[in-house]
Amino acid sequence: MTDTRAAAEYRIPATQLRPGDLVNTSPGEDDWQQVLGVYTKVGQAKSDEVRTLVESLGGRYVAVQLTDIAPVDSGVYFADGVGMMYAVDDGADQDVTEVVSHEDGVRTYLYTKFELVTVRAEST
């Protein structure tokens, strides 16, 4: 029996990315981020900054906006009177709110129009 939660990874041209896709920005290190926007033409951009960027690229690149969520790769625990803490190996533990990413963080990546990008297949 196949586990429906299993994710298959494959590579697609950056020009075929769409909002909602999950992209591995660092294959081998597993930095998965969700695509928020894909811009190959000036008219697709919703902000002046992105519009100016896409215009300067002259069709050679795909501008992709992704979430910017850093992994929490150590233990988290509750400390009496302090709150939730993040365990740090080489220093003092920190409050979780100091190490988690902001909810509105965005990364902008440039891929060549020919570049293959690693994505996760949607489960059906």
Can you put this structure into words, describing what you see?
12% of the residues are buried. With 124 residues, the protein is mainly β. It has helices spanning 48-57, 96-99, and strands at 9-13, 22-24, 32-39, 61-67, 76-79, 83-86, 94-95, 106-112, 116-120. The radius of gyration is 18 Å and the shape is globular. Strand 2 and strand 3 form a beta hairpin. The chain has two helices and nine strands. The strands form three sheets. It has a four-stranded antiparallel sheet with strand order 2-3-4-8, with helices on one face. A three-stranded antiparallel sheet has the order 5-6-7. It has two domains: 8-69 and 105-124, SH3 type barrels (Roll), CATH 2.30.30.30; 71-101, no CATH class.
